[in-house]
Design a protein that fits this description.
CATH superfamily of the largest domain: Tetratricopeptide repeat domain
Distance between the termini: 43 Å
Order of helices and strands: HHHHHHHHHH
Number of helices: 10
Number of strands: 0
Shape: elongated
Helix content: over 70%
CATH architecture of the largest domain: Alpha Horseshoe
Amino acid sequence: MKGAAVLYQAAADAGHTASLASLAWLRERAGSLDEAAQLYQAAIDTGHMGAIGYLARLREQAGDRKEAERLCWIAVEAGHTHALQPLWAVWDQEDGPQRAEQFAMRATEAGHPEVAGRLAYLREGTGDREASIRLYQAAAGAGETRSLAALVQL
């Protein structure tokens, strides 16, 4: 892992911002959570919004739910709903599926139906047909056409 960290750091130094997120992931796996959080934040600061979900997950696991949710809203506003997956996994494990679904519905009501559509897709993948239909319907009802197409295929 040490060789990979050196290469990721060299790539980050050369301007490849996604490498900061990869380096953060390595630091996280090694147990250096504070350093991982700093690297995820650096990746976000340089425009790599994919790292925001991982930082949100770390904040959630550290007990800072308010910050984790604030980061989620930043991801939603920036159009990076895929970045929410790491945090949703934690929410599902700790609180059951309701918390992620409540967040998705609030995001839909706030004009971001793609969040419910994304979560519906994930629920569909886990075999939770009832939740996927409910979420797809909410997203489609708010104008998210991909969700409407997904409903037709279910």
